[in-house]
Amino acid sequence: MKTSHVWLVAGALAIGGLVLQGWGNAEADHPFEDPLGFLGMLLVSLPLALALNITVRRRRDASGESSPDSVEFRAAQQARSQAYGDAVILGAVLFLVLAIVADTLAALTAMAFMTLAVAAFWVRYRLALRAFGA
């Protein structure tokens, strides 16, 4: 499917989502009181986000940025790894702040986030090692 067709379908779905939002209940306190508005919101945001993702991925493939030998790929991989390290440190700071300032549930949520982030890295790392035969 051509990129222009992807955007045409995403635009049509977004317009349909706007129409559904117009038919929805504007006085609703939360999205589950207004199923038409909630569905409309999803029809606006999801297709446009997917179309943008498809477009960026196709442009990256066409320019060669996605090949592992390119400078862009290596820079992006280095930036992702540094951002992951920053996220773990910021998660630890968030946990400490929430443990001091907020209630126990908020601190436990932050600790669960940190634990899941580190666990996700190690699971992916072990799977990648296994895929490389190490």
TrEMBL record:
Keywords: Membrane, Transmembrane, Transmembrane helix. It comes from the Bacteria. The chain crosses the membrane at residues 38-56, 83-101, 107-125. This is DUF2178 domain-containing protein. It comes from Ornithinimicrobium avium.
